[in-house]
Amino acid sequence: MTDTEDYIVFDRTGTPHVVVAVKTEIGGNCRRDGKRRREKMLLSEMFGVERDVDFEVIGYIGRFMLRKRFDGTERLLWISKYHNDYVNVDLDVLYNIIHKAPANIIHLPPPLTDEQREQLRAIYTLGGRWLVKDDYKDKVVFAFADKPYKKDGGYWLSDVSDRFLASQKPCVCKLVSWSDPKPYDIGKALGVGK
Fold first, then answer.
1. Cβ(157)–Cβ(125) under 8 Å?
2. pTM surpassing 0.85?
3. Preceding omega of 102 cis (within 30 degrees of 0)
4. What's the angle, vertex CA 189, arms to CA 53 and CA 103, rounded to 5?
5. DSSP 134-148
């Protein structure tokens, strides 16, 4: 069985490729005929994100998105907080993101539907600021006025405020899960509050 090493290399367009170098019997680091096998490695595989879905990167302001090129490769696009259009990312930024991926990639939730936005506004008007779902109640969402924390018994609790039943609608229930490490911030989702 041959011993190989994988390397990521970039061509002139910034497209990453996986190069597999086959070690020779005498300890060299590539094949005897000097040829290397190249496989295209997609940015989406490297970053762990889907195409045409916004994501953020720790250390950068704005959002990023991957788009498919006509040749099957992908390009990285960026939109700042101050512009409404995506632009190509320069190679220095691309190299930095690849170096940090996937640890520094922040997956963004999909945008709220009109129904979800309407339901969250109603809960916010009633004083709910945080949404949670208990471990044992899959189809019920609770709201708190103050930020709650997880309790060992499979439920959320706040020392300051009581919880109330916020919704049983599936569109709201999809927003939260017991596995969430922190409660859902309604104000942040609606773009209001602190």
1. no
2. no
3. yes
4. 45
5. -SS-TT-EEEESS--
pLDDT digits (tens, 9 = 90+) for 24-64: 444 445 455 555 554 567 788 778 788 888 888 888 888 88
Question: In the chain, which residues have pLDDT < 50?
Answer: 1, 24-28, 30, 38
In whole angstroms, how far apart are CA 9 and each of 38, 45, 67, 93, 95?
10, 15, 20, 16, 11
Closest to 43 measured CA to CA, from 92, 94, 93:
94
Q: Tokens 């259009």 identify what position?
A: 85
- Sort 110 into a burial class: Cβ within 10 Å, 0-12 / 13-18 / 19+: exposed
Identity of the residue numbered 75: R
Residues in the chain: 194
CA dist., res. 125 & res. 7, Å (int): 55
